């Protein structure tokens, strides 16, 4: 990886970019993943590269939803594997659930490499190498699922994807948590809870919230979830972008 000095003003962003590029070189991340990272970087810039108060509220609601779930599941793609493999393992361990590799640009080689990476980072249970069922209504590789994982889950975390799987999961009666810096994405708009934040900042905070809230009674978690409104949260993200832009230019 390119050696980036910590003093560089764009250090965090450049390190993330290096991780995704390294993911491509090591065979975890698709070449298209570089473009997805660029789109994410752009929205992060517009948001001011911070976890906004509305994103923090979405993270709390997502933690409540995961803790209320009978059977939650977490999906991992090539970008997620490159950016936050250890953090995803920590989240799965905090919830005591498996991680499931699920790819849009699927190749068996890439699925195996990501599963091996997650195991190397300490994951006990990794699904996705032997999908045994398809999600109805999808005619691409993201439909491939595993019984006992995403297929049977009641709540599914789908970071960094914009497409039709969110709708297919909702149509199956599941609730969906998205992590997506783009508040305009189809997935962000449709999901039950959308965390508009960089996955690098969001996942550690989500795990921390899961740990903190795990001792709360269900009634408290249900109240937290009921108080959350995804449409309002996305509107606030758009407002946060407008305010950040205005703060940068005196004449805006
Ligand atoms: O590994 P695969 O084959 O499953 O492919 C993964 C990608 C990401 C290439 C695939 O899912 C894809 O094409 O996704 P999209 O449609 O580009 O959507 C990715 C979304 O994630 C976009 O809305 C980006 O803004 C967002 N995003 C990208 N990087 C980050 C991010 N959101 C949060 N944190 C990021 N670091």
Description:
Helix 5 packs parallel to helix 9 (199-213). The chain is 52% helix and 11% strand. The chain has one domain: Phosphopantoate/pantothenate synthetase (Rossmann fold, 3-Layer(aba) Sandwich). It has 252 residues and is of the alpha/beta class. The model has no long low-confidence stretch (mean pLDDT 96). The longest helix is centred in the last third of the chain and has 19 residues, at 230-248. Residues 30, 32-33, 36-37, 39-40, 43, 77-79, 83, 103-105, 160-163, 179-182, 185, 198-199 line the site of ligand PTJ.
Radius of gyration: 18 Å
The bound ligands are: ligand PTJ
CATH classification class: Alpha Beta
Quickly count the helices. Answer: 11
Notable traits:
252 residues; binds ligand PTJ; single chain; alpha/beta; 11 helices; globular; Rossmann fold; 52% helix
